[in-house]
Amino acid sequence: MNKWIRYGVGALVLSLGVVIYQAWTPDIPHDELAEKYATGASDFIDLPSGARAHIRTRGNFEGKTVILLHGSNASLHTWEPWVDALEADYFIVTADLPGHGLTGPIPSENYTYDGMVAFVDELVETLNLENFILGGNSMGGGVTLAYALKYPDKPDGLILVDAAGIPTPENTRIKTSRPLAFELAGHWYSDWVLENITPRSIVEEGLKKCFSDNSNVTEAKITQYWELARHPGNREATGKRFAWYRDGRSSLDITPIKLPTLILWGEDDSLIPVETGTLMHEMIDGSELITYPDVGHLPMEEIPAISANAVRAFLNQFNAPVPAVPDNAPETTDTTDEDVGR
Fold first, then answer.
1. How far apart are CA 195 and CA 330, in angstroms?
2. What is the torsion angle, in degrees rounded to the nearest 10, for the CA atoms of residue 306, residue 307, residue 313 and residue 319?
3. Which of 266, 309, 105 has its CA nearest to residue 195?
4. What pLDDT, in 10s, does the model give residues 41-84?
């Protein structure tokens, strides 16, 4: 080989090594992340499957229980604006789903809807939650739908916020535009890179596609997403999850769902366009659809007060007071256990 060719190859390899060294973003130890992000109401609970879930439980223990599931590559922190708005009246449970946040990877390594549903149900059983409302955003909305299909008698109702779970209709007003990280994840040729090189800029780009108003994309929010993505095992789990998405098995038949359902959607959502929400509304009998102009993929963060008020109005139907007995109502006597339906 000509010595100049060898020098050229050597220089190229050296340059590539320098680039990789400078771009390398290693995992951040769990304990370091937990010290920073497991604050306030955060807790960790061990589930029967061996998973260790990061959760937060806040609010009024006598109020209706609401379980909220975050979206892809997010964490339970996305729900904090709603928790702040609703905790006086409702008992709210949020959790980092498998392969996300401080929950991290799980022993089953199952990051499909089935694996997520199993995780959520373990959480429900471990915390002895009953008569709850289940809600989710984006991927968490898909998990919510999958849970309702598998356990139709457990939730009392559903809240879907720019939810995944069904295919996006063609010819949407806004062309679908997913973050670069979503486009790269789940491929054999790019997963190794994403597991070891996660530029802060790629997180910023993804977040800006989630909001209509980019003033919501603060330096603190970018740092939070960037650091939690680097929890040990999270990036590998993301690759496995997106590989499953690419197999086309994440679409659900939601027509059997008969639960009271509130659907909220940002009309400027470019990840899952609002026409998807309209289709969900048509597929779920008796559902209610509310859309918000000039709002993107995360209404609970972009317009927290307005969207939380819609949730409060929806939840009011589950807290209807017992009708008062009129003063002239006839008295009953000789009531038996059968009469009161014990």
1. 72
2. -130
3. 105
4. 999 999 999 999 999 999 999 999 999 999 999 999 999 999 99
Integer Cα distance of 235 and 27 in angstroms: 9
State the pLDDT confidence band at 330, using cuts at 50, 70 and 90: very low
Quote the CA–CA distance of 144 and 264 in Å, as a whole number. Answer: 14
d(CA 30, CA 150): 32
CA-to-CA separations, 46 to 106, 237, 244, 265, in angstroms, rounded: 11, 19, 26, 34
Of 319, 310, 315, residue with least CA distance to 291: 310
CA 241/CA 197 separation, integer angstroms: 18
Q: What is the pTM of this model?
A: 0.84
Cβ atoms of 93 and 56 within 8 Å: the answer is yes
Per-position DSSP letters for 236-277, written without gaps between them = HHHHHHHHHHHTT------TT--S-EEEEEETT-SSS-HHHH
As given in the structure block, the two tokens for residue 208 are: 């800006």
Tens of pLDDT, residues 227-286? 999 999 999 999 888 888 766 666 899 999 999 999 999 999 999 999 999 999 999 999
**Cα–Cα separations (whole angstroms), residue 88 to 24, 85, 159, 311, 340:** 44, 8, 19, 14, 33
